[in-house]
Amino acid sequence: MEVFKMEFNVTRDGLTLAGIYEPAPKPNGTIAILMHGFTGNRGYTTTELLPQLAQRLRATGVGTVRFDFNGHGHSDGEFANMTVANEIADAQAILTAVQTRLAPKQINLLGHSQGGVVASMLAGYYPDLIHKLVLMAPAATLKDDAIAGHTRGLVYDPRHIPAQLPMDNGKVLGGFYLRTAQLLPIYETAQNFTGPVCLIHGDADRIVAYQASQRYDDVYQNSTFHLIPGASHRLDGAARTTVLQLATNFISN
Questions:
Q1: 185-224 burial, b if ≥16 CB within 10 A, otherwise e?
Q2: Pairing with 178, which of 125, 143, 159, 186 sits 20 to 30 Å away (CA)?
Q3: How many domains does the chain have?
């Protein structure tokens, strides 16, 4: 069945962020904003996590908005200029647009990997606007990695970070990303959100240790932590069905 989709582009500081709005066939007044991870995108094929989540959520009456962060996918900007801080600014611009254009009764945030960090911090800044939060393999270890001097295969002196670091995938990571990552108040900001939180992580995650989600679970007042046996960072394979079910049930109930 073809899903009705609507372009949902947002401008933030002169950059156009490429978004898509997929309303539910029988809307219940809730909109979920979905956020992708580091070097990822909003999902352009039906086998990817965010489009699959969107499909499941719409079936329960929840409309979805997903978008490419700056320097990713079809959005403006250079990847080398991306930081967690300006991804939070991206997400804030999307949140404001959802509020003003769609005027939902409730707004939920779902984030995977670095998108989980962004979602957690945005919810901390807007605890009065966000209803529920789903963090899937949230990459809060990006701060520890930056402090230690190793990030996604890159090795560098954490006290003398170069302006740019070439990555294996052909992209260039900006040194400012790492400098700001070292000082991010991730958990301190996240814990300001006191609504319901669903944490999902795989015990076979080789990119982000599941202890990151355990620590979120420790600082949140109203969270549930699901450790998925054998699941990797991508939460794919046999684990995907479980992840989709956990997230959808949590949002729709």
A1: ebbebbbebebbbbbbbbeebebbbbebbebbbebbeebe
A2: 125
A3: 1
